[in-house]
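Propose amino acids for all 316 sites.
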């Protein structure tokens, strides 16, 4: 069956026109509007700055000066007739670009191929499950389209290298800010007995469980919770009922710094706190916070401007 072809329609607008233009297009019958506005993008970044230290320059460039509304119609005679009806009375300039149904659903998959990480790990997208796994490598299967954490980002690769080094057979692992679950799932694939994972995004719970299931890992070994360990005292108390040989936090400096004040509650004697997602210009701040809160640095890795640190609690 031949793929349906679509037209992506982009209607240009000034920021102050967006609400009125959206209302008029909706009245004309347009459904599925997508609003792209640099002002909203900048406001979103500013209001959520605690969740990242770095925004991709290519994304910033792509949003520069953007203010438009997008929608889609079938790329055929009926679709073009529908487009004229939807644009009736709309004087704003617009552009159209052909887009195949396959472009939405599957084209991004070509950018994700199996990749070797560290000495032992081999990250495999679910649609490449049949691909041979190199000798001596441990496969970790996941769906890269579900949420953050595909293994391709430098901070994740640094943390995976630390997982390889510090996870030992039978150990307990805590993954704070788990996203797709890639770190804790990799730990389980490498021999950890059990893992607990937490993320502030409730959607991460189902995503991490789905990725775990792809690797034959069930809820008897893997538990995922939604919540913020920094603000939810009940969640922190629940996590602290057990102690973990490895605690993972691939987040950002502004979260790792306050987290360093309570991570000792989760660590077993001799356990390792492995933190990543730290842009290199802030690594000294994180290291200082770890030291202030009674943790000694035992390792540091750097890749493409990102830093990962490993630390242990100083004990008398």
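Proposal:
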């Amino acid at each position: 069956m031949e793929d349906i072809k679509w037209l992506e329609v982009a209607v240009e607008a000034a920021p102050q026109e967006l609400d009125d233009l959206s209302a008029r297009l909706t009245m004309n019958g347009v459904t599925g509007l997508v609003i792209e506005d640099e002002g909203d993008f900048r406001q979103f970044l500013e209001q959520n700055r605690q969740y990242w230290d770095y925004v991709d320059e290519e994304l910033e460039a792509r949003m520069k000066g953007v203010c438009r509304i997008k929608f889609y119609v079938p790329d055929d005679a009926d679709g073009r007739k529908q487009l004229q009806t939807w644009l009736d009375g709309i004087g704003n300039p617009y552009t159209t670009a052909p887009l195949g149904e396959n472009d939405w659903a599957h084209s991004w998959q070509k950018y994700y191929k199996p990749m070797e990480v560290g000495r032992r790990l081999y990250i495999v997208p679910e649609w490449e499950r049949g691909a041979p796994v190199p000798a001596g490598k441990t496969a970790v299967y996941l769906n890269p389209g579900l949420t953050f954490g595909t293994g391709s980002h430098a901070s994740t690769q640094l943390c995976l290298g630390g997982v390889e080094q510090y996870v030992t057979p039978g150990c307990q692992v805590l993954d704070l800010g788990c996203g797709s679950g890639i770190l804790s799932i990799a730990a389980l694939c490498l021999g950890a007995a059990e893992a607990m994972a937490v993320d502030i995004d409730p959607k991460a719970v189902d995503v991490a469980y789905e990725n775990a299931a792809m690797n034959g890992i069930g809820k008897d070994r893997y538990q995922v919770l939604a919540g913020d360990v920094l603000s939810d005292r009940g969640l922190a108390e629940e996590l602290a009922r057990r102690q973990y040989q490895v605690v993972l936090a691939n987040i950002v400096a502004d979260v790792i710094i306050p987290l360093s004040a309570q991570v000792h509650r989760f660590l077993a004697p001799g356990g390792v706190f492995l933190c990543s997602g730290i842009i290199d210009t802030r690594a000294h701040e994180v290291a200082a916070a770890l030291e202030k809160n009674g943790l000694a640095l035992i390792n540091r890795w750097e890749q493409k401007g990102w830093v990962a640190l490993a630390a242990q609690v100083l004990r008398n």
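The first helix runs from residue 18 to 27. The domain at 5-105 is CATH 3.30.70.2170 (Alpha-Beta Plaits).
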